[in-house]
Fold:
Amino acid sequence: MQDSVPVVGLAGGIASGKSCVADYLGELGAAVIDADRINHEVLAEPAVRDRIKQWWGADTYSEDGQCNRAKLAEIVFRHPDQIRRLEELTHPRVEDRRRTVQAELLAQPTTTVVVLNIPLLFEVGADRDCQVIIFVDCSQEMRIARARATRGWDAAELMRRENLQWPLEWKRTRADYIVENHADLNSLRRQVETIYRQLVAPKPCPAE
Structure:
């Protein structure tokens, strides 16, 4: 395992642009682990699928075995106890897969940076695997507009879901880098490029 390869965690509010930052880092050469993609894989596991259908109905999955994530979210996000039930089922499986992929990437000599794009980075404890935290800062107004355009949520829905997570200001204070994502994608890209160059810059050898 390469101890010199930094593991970078992304944090920020819902619809702040964390995936955009992850994409930019990937374009620059970082290896990105996308927890949402892993979650898709976990939801397709037969044992998980059967348990979810048992708990919340057969219509949570299509005939070809694909999870109806919108339907599932509609059910569980209205009831915090049901969210916890789902998380207890899926989160350990997602974390196991994520750790396996991370170890494989760190073992590869060509890996320069590993990025964890995990929506609940702090909540699931994945921040403990990170040497660097990047917080993606974005105004609430812009996040609401993005969530409305891409997810069909109103302001109340975004805030309701975000209130189930740890406070943004708490996460912000734990960041090593803060990138501003307000409107200018070129500016965002330049900020990410600057951070990436610092992450891969040769580290000075300790004085003997």
